[in-house]
# Entry
Amino acid sequence: MRKKIDADAVNRVQAGELNAFAELYDRYARLVRCLSFEGTGNLNDANDLCQEVFMKAYRQLSELHEPGSFGFWLTGITRNVIVDWQRRKAREKARFVDADLEDHEGHIAERQAAQSKSTELRAMIRELPEAERMALHLFYLDEQPAETARQILKLSPSGFYKVLARARDLLAEKLKNSEIANGE
# Structure
């Protein structure tokens, strides 16, 4: 019975009735998604592969010689797409591992330099007057909305922005005179 229904839908798609492909999708999407999830272990990747499978099936539908075997044919496409996906992931992983090994020493040096700069920047912020320091912390570091930050500091909206601008100016001046600005 299913073969007859599949054959009818495939023949209608080949005759130009696109809604018939939607019927095939509705009938087989769950199966394709399940097989894809088995192969990927990730629902997002499984959904992506499901779309890829149906796009391939639609483009290659003219190659299907037995319309009644659509389900079996689609399962084969699904398996091929999963194998291709797994190969791509393995190549990406190998490439990242190789890059990580090559760049490991460089990353350590970069992290140490960034950590040193971050420590120096925090020290500069601690040297700012309290209102300016608090404005920077609340607005930029704690990512509080301006309205919340100004209420905490008990400032008017324009007063808050003035304090924040002053804090940025003071910090910019300190940065110009520091090793951070000189790239050291």
In short: The longest helix spans residues 70-126. The CA atoms of residues 87 and 97 lie 15 Å apart.
